[in-house]
Design goal:
Elements: E1 5-10, H1 17-30, E2 35-39, H2 40-45, H3 55-74, E3 78-82, H4 88-97, E4 101-107, H5 110-116, H6 121-126, E5 148-151, H7 157-170, H8 185-195, E6 200-202, H9 205-216, E7 224-225, H10 228-237, E8 252-254, H11 256-262, E9 267-272, E10 275-281, E11 284-287, H12 290-298, H13 306-313, E12 317-325, H14 340-350, E13 355-358, H15 366-376, E14 381-384, H16 398-412, E15 418-420, H17 432-444, E16 449-452, H18 467-470, H19 477-480, E17 483-486, E18 490-493, E19 498-501, E20 512-513, H20 517-525, H21 537-550
Parallel strand pairs: 1-3, 1-4, 2-3, 4-5, 6-9, 13-14, 13-16, 14-15, 16-17
Antiparallel strand pairs: 7-12, 8-12, 9-10, 10-12, 11-12, 18-19, 18-20
Helix pairs in contact: 1-7, 3-4, 16-21
């Protein structure tokens, strides 16, 4: 049975609670969910007939609404309440008694409420002509820690509804799959105009890559930078608050002065190289825990580790909130910068029922080729999905790697069974945790299977051999939405006369041709040829030419 829950819309009269509730009913109904709306006015007509507007009567009314909403949620349905519920204490009381309670604060300024009030009630209340009017002459206590805040004075009903649904997905109550939060057409023009008036925050290339991936749906179910609750649970348990697997914090970090500047802002333009690339609705400004993050994500606090080094040099603060991208990620490889939905569309066009994803930050060599083709013996298609975001300074540049992929695919792969596309993510070097992270990204791009090697996303000797395989034992297969193909280390065996692995080759390691990335770079720097057992000649030639140009 689907998980039942309560959406508790609270806010001043006229803020738009009932309108948003009606739109939520439509959207949740599309997902096949049963929804009941408990509207404040209707409840007073039936469930709470005879109650007045004293604090005691209002509290009784809210308790009754909460009781019925809880019954709906316990039966697997969705209850949406649309009542002012002005007092924080009674809302918290209902929360404590109600399963899966999601508080949504529908914020709207008094000025906007007065402007849109056709009956003139706000104007009369402000003039002292109406007593006990909530928000004017009677108190309205804003929620301190609601799950969601929407602003109906600034957002359209559709935008507020979308943000609520996004948060429900992150909380694990609904699943809508991969969707883009990428402005286009008239919306893009409007947001670009707005960006010129908003306070701005300059992003480095890694932060810009994260913002772009959030916008195209590559990091679903995330649709924004993490708030403190998701940040903490990801570090502690490798899951979001809603229970979905997620192993890498996706946060927008700030130095102390940046956090202070943005603390009281609600919306900010994110810029990269001076151009606006996204709009962030700020829901949280919070302090992170770099020490705990280092150990739980990277397994070390050694500053020599590139991920830990970056973590320690970044600010301790972070801002969280939904992101609307103003531009899709552009990595400099036109034709290959495909979004998840575009890749999914191409997979469907080709009729692939099964697609295996392959992660690499290095040029494809013979061992990679072997693993991919073993998988292709049983699956319909291969998504070769190289990471082209920020990597270590001594890694092979992305343009060289892409040229190597093109050469290899042109000569050694069936064209209709392989798709090459860029992954705009940056490299964390988080070993096992990043193996899961990469698998989830490839799930979003439409892969049904994902290849994981013995030292996936590793660097140095920080991670145990095959730790990247064992971490997947923490998750049920249906949780990940993608099947993991665990491969042993592959190599060219001179005695076998071909590619093999430790599972298929009986010969001693002396017969195995194995080159580390470091050794490859050494040979290239010295101008020595790469062994044919390691690399195809076309790839070796490209690497050699690139090294000579740098030298």
């Amino acid at each position: 049975m689907a998980k039942g829950f309560v959406i508790w819309l609270t806010g001043l009269s006229g803020a738009g609670k009932s309108t948003i509730a009606g739109r939520l009913v439509q959207e949740l109904g599309v997902l096949g969910r049963h929804v009941e709306v408990l509207d404040g006015d209707e409840v007073r007509t039936h469930l709470s007939k005879g109650l007045g507007f004293s604090k005691e009567d209002r509290d009784t009314n809210i308790r009754r609404i909460g009781f019925v909403a809880g019954l709906v949620a316990r039966s697997g349905g969705i209850a949406i309440t649309a009542a002012i519920s002005p007092y924080r204490e009674i809302r918290d009381e209902v929360r404590a008694r109600t399963p899966n309670f999601v508080e949504v604060y529908v914020r709207c300024s008094i000025e906007e409420l007065t402007r849109r009030d056709v009956k003139g009630l706000y104007a009369k209340a402000l003039a002292g002509e109406i007593a006990h009017f909530t928000g004017i002459s009677d108190p309205y206590e804003e929620p301190l820690n609601p799950e969601i805040v929407v602003d109906s004075g600034r957002e359209t009903v559709e935008e507020s509804t979308e943000r609520i649904l996004d948060r429900l997905e992150v909380l694990g109550y609904i699943a809508r799959g991969v969707r883009e939060h990428l402005a286009t057409g008239a919306e893009l023009d409007r947001l670009l105009d707005e960006a010129r008036t908003l306070p701005s925050l300059d992003l480095d290339p890694r932060q810009a890559a994260d913002a772009g991936m959030l916008g195209i749906g590559a990091l679903a179910p995330l649709h924004g930078f993490m708030g403190p609750a998701d940040y903490a649970t990801v570090i502690e348990s490798g899951r979001l608050v809603g229970g979905q697997p997620f192993t890498i914090p996706v946060v927008l970090r700030l130095k102390d002065e940046g956090a202070e500047r943005l603390r009281h802002m609600s919306r900010v333009a994110l810029r990269a190289d001076g151009a606006p690339v996204a709009i962030l609705d700020i829901t949280d400004v919070y302090r992170t825990d770099p020490a705990s993050e280092a150990w739980n994500v990277y397994g070390t606090d050694d500053s020599a580790h590139p991920g830990v080094q970056l973590l320690k040099s970044s600010g301790d603060w972070a801002i969280g909130g939904p992101v609307t991208a103003l531009a899709r990620p552009s990595t400099g490889f036109p034709g290959y910068d495909l979004t998840p939905l575009e890749v999914r569309s191409l997979i469907a066009e080709r009729g692939w029922q099964t697609t295996v994803g392959f992660q690499t930050r290095n040029p494809v060599h013979r061992a990679h080729e072997y693993l991919q083709k073993v998988a292709l013996e049983n699956l319909d298609g291969l998504l070769l999905h190289p990471l082209v975001g920020e990597t270590k300074s001594d890694d092979i540049p992305a343009d060289v790697r892409m040229a190597c992929y093109e050469a290899l695919l042109d000569g050694y792969y069936p064209k209709q069974r392989v798709l090459l596309a860029t992954n705009p993510a940056w490299m964390r070097y988080a070993g096992p945790k990043e193996a899961v992270f990469h698998a989830l990204i490839r799930r979003n791009y439409g892969c049904t299977h994902f290849i994981v090697g013995r030292d996936h996303a590793g660097v140095g000797s920080y991670y145990d051999t095959y730790a990247a395989h064992r971490i997947f034992e923490q998750y049920q297969p249906d949780e990940l939405g993608i099947e993991i193909l665990r491969f042993e280390h592959a190599f060219y065996c001179r005695a076998c006369g071909g590619m093999a692995s430790t599972r298929t080759c009986p010969h001693p390691t002396a017969d195995h041709a194995v080159l580390s990335g470091t050794r490859v770079r050494e040979l290239l720097t010295l101008g020595q040829p790469l062994p044919a057992e390691f690399s195809r000649p076309e790839v070796a030639a490209l690497l050699r030419d690139a090294t000579e140009k740098v030298a």
